[in-house]
Amino acid sequence: MKCSKCEEDKDSVEFSPSKQSKSGKTSWCKECKRKTMREHHRIKSQDPEYRRGKSQASIVRSRRNKKIIDKYQECGCIICDEKETHALVFHHVDPRKKEIAVSSSVLRALHKTLAEIKKCVVLCRNCHAKVHAGILDISAHPSVIQVLEAERDTQ
After folding, report:
1. Is the pLDDT of residue 122 over 90?
2. Can you list the positions of beta strands (E) in 1-102?
3. What percent helix, strand, coil does the chain show, rounded to 5?
């Protein structure tokens, strides 16, 4: 048999079995397949997300959703104008309507992430902690009122 990769004539035992081909053997010899798989693994192993076992589709979805989340955070904290995205969080205006945390929704479908973002306002971590501690009241803030009105309109 002739390997379609290296184009060398080899004995049929040098080819793996295959149910899809007419000959019952793969078109690449075992050696070529091994070299190709090692090279593929070497390249992919340098990608940290691949090393964590994520599929290519989930990596693409995660990166896309993260960019969209960052875009919503560009305006900064509604209280103190903090703009560093690493310091910002999405605060659910009505915690009873929270289905998922926006930060953990990067692997979910885009429409679910966007639906969850619409229930939130952007706060920095400090202001967020103050809201949950009862030190800071944001119920009369225009952004909070806008989110509540938008939720009322969709019901």
Report:
1. yes
2. 15-17, 25-29, 88-92
3. 50, 15, 35
Helix (H) or strand (E) holding 73: helix 56-73
The residue whose two tokens read 């998922």 is: 100
142-150's contacts with Cβ under 8 Å and 24+ in sequence apart are 143/78, 144/78, 144/93, 147/93, 147/118, 147/119, 147/120, 147/121, 148/93, 148/94, 150/118
Q: Count of CB atoms within 10 A of residue 37's CB?
A: 10
- The H or E element spanning position 120 is strand 120-124
pTM for this model (two decimals)? 0.59
| CA-wise closest residue to 31 among 44, 45, 18, 16 | 16
Q: For residue 102, how many other CB atoms are within 10 A of its CB?
A: 23
Which one-letter amino acid corresponds to residue 11?
A: D
